[in-house]
Amino acid sequence: MGLVTAACFADAGHDVAGVDTDSVKVEALRSGRVPVFEPELELERSGDRQADVKANIQRLMHIFEGWVRRYPESYWWFNRKWDGV
Fold first, then answer.
1. I want to staple 10 with a disulfide (CB 3.0 to 4.6 A). Which of 16, 22, 30, 50 is the partner?
2. With 90 as the cut, is the pLDDT of residue 50 above it?
3. Distances in Å between the alpha carbon of 7 and those of 2, 11, 48, 56, 84?
4. 58 pLDDT band (50/70/90 cuts)?
5. Do 6 and 18 touch, CB atoms closer than 8 A?
6. Which pLDDT score, from 0 to 100, does residue 54 have?
7. Contacts of residue 65, Cβ cutoff 8 Å, sequence gap at least 6
């Protein structure tokens, strides 16, 4: 699972231990730097709330899919999210 998922489980009261094999990333976190950067996402605001929610979720899932494809070893899925993966 990823860092955000681990944080959510911890917030829900579960004991969570974070493990990463990338020593550069680990050292950055230890020194207080966040080694991940994503540019700000401007949300769709057309006035059609239902369409905006759908469009924004699709955009977020596209970004998330990119992370999973880039770092598949960091994620553990309980079901298939994308066909052909």
1. 16
2. yes
3. 9, 6, 32, 23, 29
4. very high
5. yes
6. 93
7. 81, 82
What is the average pLDDT score of the chain? 80
Nearest C-alpha neighbor of 36 from the set 45, 44, 25: 25
- Cα 59 to Cα 63: distance, rounded to the nearest angstrom: 6
Domain limits, the chain: 1-39, 47-85
Residue 1 has pLDDT above 60, yes or no: no
Which of helix, strand or coil describes residue 59? helix
Q: What is the DSSP string of 6-48?
A: HHHHHHTT-------S-HHHHHHHHTT------PPPPPP-SS-
82 in helix, strand or coil? coil
Average pLDDT over residues 13-25: 83
